[in-house]
């Protein structure tokens, strides 16, 4: 079982980064595991080396250590390299999005594969229609694009399900200019068209990050009140005539101190905490170095929805600003295969550094720059050049520094 640990907030203002890291490590665990397995090189930026080390220590599945971890080295690297400043108040959702953006920019093949199986598998397009008297006069589709991550939802709805469904409804578009060539051949009208657009999902990701609007509670005579949004532990999406079910994995909480004038309640610069579901189904609330087990699914979703919870201290208000939902049909086997391949490659690289001769005779498949994979075997090790000679199945001979090649061992 993966232990959920707190993260020491030594600066007093780094809760936005610590909350983002908790959600990254526990709700996006395939990415965390890929980083933990990654062999860093001298060319890696310091933030990546520090983040990989953090992932190895923070979520060590073989350790029962529950003590809070000190992230000072990682925080300083994030500040220097990518502009995430733990010394200033910030927003945890923005911090998480920034970390994910930087990881994507690495163009690392293994990370890209894990992204594709988690956050980046969804695509969508807009259907734009111009109508007159309920007749469709013009219609066009935009190009397919990756679904936004995080995906923004409004809290103006009673439930997370209703908020998501509303994103897929037709909405009016004011001032849209249709070209004459867009109208159908039977259109003879002079009345302006009513234009609408609708988001159409072409494929669904296995993991959704939903960014929720923040609600500022209103003050009553003796207290502050807000209408909580119904957050559910499962979410159902329809696609191609089939229902797809997603399970809530956790989220980021925005915490507001209500001991102030209502006019001073702002959306940025308050406190952030995290709520995550463990691999055995327990909910853990993480507030800096402190962790508290949540008694039930009901209390967890109420806390994320902004409703009353026994965890909420007097004069504090909490509400989820980021929710992580994972498909119940998540391709665990495919992810495990990718991570196992990475683990195998690391083990072989370890052998290379100890005794390169031990690889002679092993079969392998090497990815070339054209993206194609070619099979062969390690025929010899050249002591003078420090490279291995590979004989491909078609007889072609090449010498490589195997630590620099993308390899699958057969």
Key structural traits:
single chain, alpha+beta, 5-stranded antiparallel sheet, 26% helix, globular
Explain the overall architecture:
26% of the residues lie in helices and 30% in strands. It is an alpha+beta fold. Strands 4, 7, 10, 11, 12, 13, 14 and 15 form an 8-stranded mixed sheet that branches. Strands 1, 2, 3, 5 and 6 form a 5-stranded antiparallel sheet that branches. Helix 2 crosses helix 3, helix 2 (29-37) runs parallel beside helix 9 and helix 3 (46-58) runs antiparallel to helix 4 (72-82). The longest helix is centred in the C-terminal third of the chain and has 23 residues, at 332-354.
Order of helix and strand elements from N to C terminus:
HHHHHHEEEEHEEEEEEEEEEHEHEEEEE
As a percent range, the share of strand residues is 25-35%
| Counted beta strands | 20
**Contiguous helical run count:** 9
Mean pLDDT: 84
The outline comes out as globular
Structural class: alpha+beta
Outline:
This protein is α+β, with helices and mostly antiparallel strands. The chain has helices at residues 15-27, 29-37, 46-58, 72-82, 92-105, 109-117, 160-166, 297-305, 332-354; strands at residues 123-132, 135-141, 145-146, 151-153, 171-172, 194-203, 207-212, 218-219, 224-225, 234-239, 242-257, 271-277, 283-287, 290-294, 316-327, 363-367, 373-382, 387-392, 397-400, 407-409. Helices cover 26% and strands 30% of the residues.
């Amino acid at each position: 079982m993966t232990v959920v640990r707190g993260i020491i907030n030594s600066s007093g203002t780094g809760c936005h980064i610590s909350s983002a890291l908790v959600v990254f490590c526990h709700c996006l665990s395939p990415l965390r595991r890929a980083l933990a397995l990654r062999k860093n090189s001298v060319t890696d930026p310091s933030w990546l080396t520090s983040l990989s080390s953090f992932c190895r220590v923070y979520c060590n599945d073989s350790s029962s250590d529950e003590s809070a971890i000190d992230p000072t080295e990682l925080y300083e690297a994030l500040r220097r390299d990518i502009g995430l400043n733990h010394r200033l108040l910030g927003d945890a959702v923005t911090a998480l999005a920034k970390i994910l953006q930087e990881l994507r920019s690495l163009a690392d093949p293994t990370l890209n594969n894990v992204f594709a199986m988690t956050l980046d598998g969804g695509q969508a397009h807009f259907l734009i229609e111009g109508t007159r008297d309920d007749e469709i006069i013009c219609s066009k589709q935009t190009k397919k694009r990756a679904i936004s991550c995080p995906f923004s939802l409004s809290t103006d709805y009673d439930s997370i399900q209703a908020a998501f469904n509303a994103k897929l409804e037709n909405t009016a578009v004011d001032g849209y200019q249709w070209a004459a060539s867009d109208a159908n051949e039977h259109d003879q009208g002079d009345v302006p068209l009513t234009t609408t657009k609708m988001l159409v999902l072409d494929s669904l990701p296995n993991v959704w990050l939903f960014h929720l609007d923040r609600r500022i509670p209103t003050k009553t005579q003796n207290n502050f009140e807000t209408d909580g949004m119904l957050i559910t532990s499962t979410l159902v999406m329809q696609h191609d005539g089939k229902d797809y079910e997603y399970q809530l994995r956790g989220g980021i909480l925005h915490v507001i101190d209500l001991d102030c004038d209502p006019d001073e309640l702002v959306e940025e610069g308050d406190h952030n905490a995290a709520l995550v579901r463990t691999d055995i189904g327990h909910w853990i609330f993480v507030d800096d170095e402190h962790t508290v087990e949540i008694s039930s699914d009901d209390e967890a979703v109420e806390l994320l929805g902004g409703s009353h919870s026994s965890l909420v201290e007097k004069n504090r208000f909490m509400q989820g600003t980021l929710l992580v939902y994972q498909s119940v049909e998540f391709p665990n086997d495919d992810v495990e295969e990718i991570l196992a391949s990475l683990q195998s490659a690391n083990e072989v690289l370890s052998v290379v550094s100890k005794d390169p001769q031990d690889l002679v005779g092993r079969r392998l498949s090497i990815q070339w720059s054209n993206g194609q994979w070619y099979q062969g075997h390690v025929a010899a090790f050249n002591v003078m050049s420090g490279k291995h000679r590979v004989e491909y199945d078609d007889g072609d001979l090449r010498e490589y520094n195997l630590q620099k090649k993308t390899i699958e061992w057969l």
